[in-house]
Each structure stands twice: as structure tokens, then as C-alpha cells.
Amino acid sequence: MNDSQGFQSSKKNTFKNGVVEVKSAPSSEIGRMGEVDRFSKDELDRLKIISGSMQNSKILNIFRELRTQLLNKNRKKNFVCMVTSISQGGGASYVASNLAAVFALDKTKTSLLIDANLYAPGLDKLIIGDSESGITDYLSDNSLDIKDVVYATGVPRLRVIPIGENREAAAEYFSSNKMQNFIDEIRTRYSDRYVFIDSPPILDSSEARILSEIVDVVILIVGHGCVTKEQVESAVQIIEKDKLAGLVYNN
Predict the structure, then answer these.
(1) In whole angstroms, how far apart are CA 73 and each of 128, 194, 208, 231, 243?
(2) Is the separation of the CB atoms in 78 and 224 below 8 Å?
(3) How many C-beta atoms surround the C-beta of residue 165 within 10 A?
(4) In terms of pTM, does the model score above 0.70?
(5) 217-223 vs 158-161, strand pairing mode
(6) Which residues pair with 223 in a beta bridge?
(7) HEC states along the chain?
(8) SS (HEC) of 59-92
(9) How many CB atoms lie within 10 A of CB 214?
(10) Do 161 and 198 form a contact (C-beta atoms < 8 A)?
(11) Which of 43, 52, 193, 198 is disulfide-compatible with 39, CB 3.0–4.6 A?
(12) Per-residue pLDDT tens for 68-125?
């Protein structure tokens, strides 16, 4: 089900002396952000999505600490964060999904999770209902608006943009002016929204390298026992030094 409310601002616009003033909505309004449905505890466990009520508090606290470090790095401002691994199966989707989930646990914040993992997409499993279009469709079809590709999930205050069907020229789409404008808009329109992009492995795809140039911050996932020291060093060299938030070792 397309979330027609999913990309409406949590701010109120007023006019004063001919100028639009943008005001943030109260945290209680964000907390009541409409949901189609909510995942049960068992569903969250099956999907490997953290929640405030999960029994494994160690994992929850790890993601809370990552949230704190990202907020500190970006001086408490919202941002667009790309999560990429060094090799396929490194766990970027898992980390991206749960970073978005842990930000959404805060009732003063919302999250937007974008599936750009062309070779192993899977974030549509978080969507409640069917998804008709995604990011590649939006970039290739001028008739689509951003709100047409944003969908509600079973996690409160978390929205997803799936990969879409039109993936053949994704590298060209991601390097287009429309993609840059898209990133600029989702970064600046909502001060309470934090954006996470699930990317293909940085060493294996040109798309990941393109995305790393237009986001604010990058997290590099190192699959435990899956990569060499040389591969880690090569991946770090690709990412701009001031954008690399750090490495996350995933086992």
C-alpha cells in the first residue's frame, strides 16, 4: 500500500509578511504518525528488526550507541547515510534497516530507508501491502512524485522506498541531476527525518561509489571472516575521509 501520508512534512507552514515560515511539529504529533499496521514481536524477530521490547538488549544498545555516534558526528542535525559492505552478504541491509529502526524508536524522529541494493534488494519485506514503484522508477519516470514511492512499514515512524523495477541503467540514474535533487530535497525538507540508503558492496559496484559522493555520511560494514585486510584498506580509500563515519564489524 502506497503511503500517501508518508512524505508529508511533520512541520506546519505559516505565512508572515509574505514569507513562508516552517515550524517543526510537536513530538506528540510525530509519535502519532499514522501507521497502516504494526509488526508483532514475532514478526520483528523473524525480520531481524530491533525494537524497544526485544529481549536481546545487547544488540539494541549497540544500535543505540551507533545512533549516538552518528548524531554526534553530524552535530545533532539530520543527514543522509549510506550503508555499504565490502563484499556481498556482509550485512549492509541488516545494519541499514536497524539503524533506521533505532532512529524511529525516538518519538521525536522519523526514518526513511531507501533500497539501492540493485543486486540483492530486500527491503520491500518491511512494507505493509504491495509496492508498485521504487527509487529507480522515480528516477526514470517524470510522472512520479516522491510521495508515490514512499511506503508505510510495520515499524512506527519508519518509511521505505523500495528498489523498483527499472534497474537496467541504475548507475546513470544515480549520477543524474534528478538523483542529486532528490537527495537535496529529502535532506532539507524534514529536519526530523533521518535517511538511510542500503547500497551494493563498495568494491563490487560503480553504483555504490556514485552514491558515496552524494550522501552526507557512509558506514562501512566489514563481514567477520569474509574479507581481507587489503580489501578493507581498498574500500576505505574509495570513501571520502570526512564522510566515513566508521567501520562496523558484523558477525
Answers:
(1) 33, 14, 22, 25, 10
(2) no
(3) 13
(4) yes
(5) unpaired
(6) 250
(7) CECCCCCCCCEEEEEECCEEEEEECCHHHHHCCCCCCCCCHHHHHHHCCCCCCCCCHHHHHHHHHHHHHHHHHCCCCCCEEEEEECCCCCCHHHHHHHHHHHHHHCCCCEEEEEECCCCCCCHHHHECCCCCCCHHHHHHCCCCCHHHHCEEECCCCEEEECCCCCCCCHHHHHCCHHHHHHHHHHHHCCCCEEEEEECCCCCCCHHHHHHHHHCCEEEEEEECCCCCHHHHHHHHHHCCCCCEEEEEEEC
(8) HHHHHHHHHHHHHHHCCCCCCEEEEEECCCCCCH
(9) 17
(10) no
(11) 43
(12) 999 999 988 999 999 999 988 899 999 999 999 999 999 999 999 999 999 899 999 9
* The C-alpha cell that represents 201 in the structure block: 558492496
**134: exposed, middle or buried (Cβ count in 10 Å: 0-12, 13-18, 19+):** buried
Q: Smallest Cα–Cα separation from 153: which of 31, 33, 238?
A: 33
- Hey, what's the cell of 140? 526514470
Amino acid at 207: E
